[in-house]
Amino acid sequence: MQRLYASQATVEQMTWHANHQREEGSMCHPSDAEAWRHFDRTHHDFAVDPCNVRLDLCMDGFALHGQYGRTYSCWPVILTPYNLPTGKCMSFEYMFLTMVIPGPSNLKHLIDVYLESLIEELQNLWHMGVLMCDSARDETFTMRTALMLTVNDLPTYVMASGWSSVGVMGCQVCMEDTRAFYLQNGRKMCYFDCHREFLPPDHPYRRNKKAITNDRVERKVAHPRFTGEQRRDWVEEFSLAVEVPLSLSDEYITHATTY
Hints:
This protein has 8 helices and 8 strands. It is of the alpha+beta class and 259 residues long. It has a domain at 2-152. Strands 3-2-1-6 form a 4-stranded mixed beta sheet, covered by helices on one side. Strands 4-5 form a two-stranded antiparallel sheet. Strand 7 (181-183) and strand 8 (188-190) form a beta hairpin. The longest helix has 17 residues, at 111-127.
């Protein structure tokens, strides 16, 4: 981040997200989305300074040298600043390899242990910030960062969130309020016709008794989305993820992250 503000080639574009012309009804950059605007309204003290950095986190695992089927896996963790224009924030040179989590096996729930140092650093940048030099204005300022979103596939999402994608409660939206049922012959959970409850109350598909499920009218209204505070309270009740059982160690065991 310091290099982006120190370079004359990028320092002016670090505030592009706040100054570019938006076309109503179209989205060409994450800053055009309603989620971005909601964040600005919620955290006005952060949004008032366009020099603050919005980040995206991406991570995924792969087998080295194409050795599929073997146990060794490698997990790169990449951060991308969304302050830059559309053509740059998705380009290779602005995707920063923050850490590499080595194998030898799939991380599963232990991914939180490896990410602990990165999360701690992101929290410090959010609460306190870091002193930065702006080469365009020839002055220093306190830069803060916010992790706006994450990009990953479903298996990685399951590992990072701790919520399974299989079984009775495999839906991350419905969670405990699911209506999934078990197929006796197929021996699998089925989520068929669980989606109509999200439609508006007057939608014609709710009253359709033939096209989806015979002789069934959908009257249920989907439960409201859980807030971040509610999800945080649930997570705080869980035990910490460690590499060895807590019964074998009196201290919280962490990994040495490879940078």
